[in-house]
User: What shape does this take?
Amino acid sequence: MSKNILIGITSSIASYKIYDLIRKFKKTDYNVKVILTPNALEFVSPIVIETLSKNEVYVEQYCKRSNPEHICLCDWADCFLIAPISANTISKITAGICDNLLTSVACAYLGSQKPLIIAPAMNEGMYLNPFVKENIEKLKNNNVSIIDPQKGYLACGAEGIGRLADIDIIYQKTLREIHQNKKNNSKKILVTSGGTIEAIDNVRYITNFSSGKMGYNLALSAYYNGFDVKLITTCDTQNPPFITQQVKSALEMLNAIQNSEFDYLFMASAVCDYRSNTVSAKKLKKEELGKKLTLNLTQNPDVVATIAKSKTKNQIITGFCLADDDLINCAKNKLKNKNLDYIIANDVQTALNKDENEVTIISKSGKMVNIKKDTKFNIAKKILEVVCD
Assistant: This one.
């Protein structure tokens, strides 16, 4: 069932960015309604917002309707996001002032126990004003989620903090507030992703075709579900809402895992089985090497098996098996030999570097769950449902 997201927009030069946010919510099948403060009309167009949201825009505090507007909107919404929110509106909400429709809805919404999120945007001097900071802290202490502004170029021409958070961050944090199960907040999920990189010299390396998409989607889905998430990856990530640690080699990945806490580990990375015995500090010249380059390789440690040897009884480790043939038997053998709790079996032809996948989840008790072809994000959600139930 689609969720209802109510967005409040206050007067800010950053208000136009919410057009893209509305598009993202609509594209992923959320219902969106928007409230504008009277001064926000100086910055955004109600016609544009109505076209994007497919709903009426709300501005007036008092309309000729049978039910009070602020209560109807409060009841309709599963989540209320105010972005951007100005210093003025932050102060009004903190003081319980209801002088326009948006602040009236916020006043009613704070007593509803449903998620209220604010994303401040303002000049650095205003954001650092001790009274504004105090008001933000008061809201935070009353279960309002704060999406902190970023440092950057501000509308006034200065560099500083106060810039509206990236739209992707606002989108992802809003979805977490809507979908999270708060009992998961204390559970730590560690995910690895991407193909490891084993250097030959300072230019060349050995790697594989892993895209890291499955691991990233597992981390994102776990984040939406309220888990404390960390992603260890060899891939570049764009402003993820969870902690991310970049690594390159298998040894770096092993060290990163050993220095991380987790209740659940999803080993979705494709670790290179071998690395070069020697790594040149300078580029090896073709003219000096001749027509053939011979590499002496050393076997890398089996990262997931190494971690599984020292896991506690409360830690759950899930591995991944990628094979061309005899997939299920191959996965079962790895599950047993590596002392795993679960293994995800996926075929090379359907999984590698694609946006969709089809997998079979096998538990150490022998239970098998087949997940038919779907997006990797939806596959990730189903994997979490089985493993973290």
